[in-house]
UniProtKB/TrEMBL annotation:
The keyword Flavoprotein applies. Keywords: FAD, Flavoprotein, Oxidoreductase. Belongs to the GMC oxidoreductase family. Its cofactor is FAD. It comes from Tepidimonas sediminis. Residues 273-287 form the Glucose-methanol-choline oxidoreductase N-terminal domain. This is Alcohol dehydrogenase acceptor. FAD binds at V85, V233. GO terms for molecular function: flavin adenine dinucleotide binding; oxidoreductase activity, acting on CH-OH group of donors. Pfam families: GMC_oxred_C, GMC_oxred_N. Its EC number is 1.1.99.-. InterPro entries: FAD/NAD-bd_sf (IPR036188), GMC_OxRdtase (IPR012132), GMC_OxRdtase_N (IPR000172), GMC_OxRtase_C (IPR007867). Gene3D superfamilies: FAD/NAD(P)-binding domain, Glucose Oxidase, domain 3. The keyword ATP-binding does not apply.
Amino acid sequence: MDGPVFDHVIVGAGTAGCLLANRLSADPARRVLLLEAGGRDDYLWIHIPVGYLYCIGNPRTDWLYQTEPDAGLNGRRLRYPRGKVLGGCSSINGMIYMRGQARDYDGWAAHTGDAAWSWANCLPDFKAHEQHWRLDVGTDEAFAALHGHRRTGSTGEWRVERQRLRWAILDAFAQAAQQAGIPATDDFNRGDNEGVGYFEVNQRAGWRWNAAKAFLHPVARRPNLTVWTGAHVAGLRLEGGEGAPLRCTGVEVVRDGQRLTVHAAREVTLAAGAIGSPQILQLSGIGPAAWLRPLGIPVRADLPGVGANLQDHLQIRAVYRVHGARTLNTLAHSAWGRLRIGLEYLLWRRGPMSMAPSQLGAFTRSRPDRPWPDVEFHVQPLSLDAFGEPLHPFDAITASVCNLNPGSRGTVRIRSPRWEDAPAIAPNYLSTAEDRQVAADSLRLARRIVTQPALARYRPEEIRPGPQYQTDEELARLAGDIGTTIFHPVGTTAMGPDGDPMAVTDSRLRVRDGRGGRIGGLRVVDAGIMPTITSGNTNSPTLMIAEKAARWILAGD
């Protein structure tokens, strides 16, 4: 069925899509359609910070993906959460505000040959939407220069706040980390995130602050902005080929049991994420010919990079039992403790129900000879066997550590021509010798921190992986047993310079045609365009990408 015409069609109302819809529809002359396969973000547990426990693994808010069996994880499969709701992953993630390191973006600039991606040129795009609590109360000029809004101080939409709780055991871990040589920091977002401190979070007054609240709902009444939920994109509408320039003129949408073509007079922007965007491209015949032809999909653009270059942060969860310290384990096992937790949140919007999945962070070097911080700790006052399992009945902490710059590369690959079928996700974790070495070194570093004097009175005992494992080989194998995703997939539609056979987009995020040109009217704007993963949590870098892309789209660049 033939459908309506818009100037811009944005596929995916997640982190990038919500910002893009806000910025593009600010021009009243542009008709903007935002498509979301999931529903509205009116589920209460989206907005209570601890509600991620009820959103991940819930078909109302999660795509429910799983990875393929992974040799690096000793054959295990992992649950692979991706947001399927307005706000996307910002509605179910850990809420941590983290930009990464300056070297990440300078590396992108060098790789693409485009200085627009340097740290100096990305910083204004971070600041364009940031609203930081420290600027509410006044702060020093150096901090304001890194976080102040480009026009009038802290007036952006993306709220950044302090966490509304502290734990004595986490304070002791921070002191132990300093005794182990990791400096204290009160700002992980200066471009050099080395240090230990409490994470800042995307919350407002104890509620989750997702991209839909920040960017979409405030402009939802604009007459030139249309939002469709429950709208699955089955493929792109492409015209040309056979010697003629290829152009994307719309999308095939399945909604309310009907399939219709929505036309884009100016541009289609894929913002479906590092899993969804390559899936849509492949379904449309844009991707590796060697993958598409056996499925009977006509190849419109042979781009081997579509679905390749998958990168993710694998967290290795070291668990330590502690004594004489209050943790969430025993607090939550007590009926009085649960009542206290509920009342604390109901009355003051603080306490464990307001907490992000990880509270304390540390960025440091896995070994002293590393040239920059290459690992990140997420430290929690709790422990469990696996996500979704019950908390342990004894007090414990979890010191999860991830390799910030993994060398392992995986794939996202459609299984069939059916849009309903989930793609095969194969991260290939720990598939390089270097990644396995960093895993072993990281577990030793966690051990070194917990043996410092600041934690001595809590008598930490290693439960996982276990002190009996000491060699590199043993620790790398155990990392495969206890490692899990930290939900940061990127890179599957990576940008790159002309002549790079694996580059899916150019540095302005326009999709290549496989013949040295571009597919007209088609861009990708999400974490998939990252050529290399950022050194930290990936949600806010995705907003920065969308901010930059929105300016280019409005300028016709």
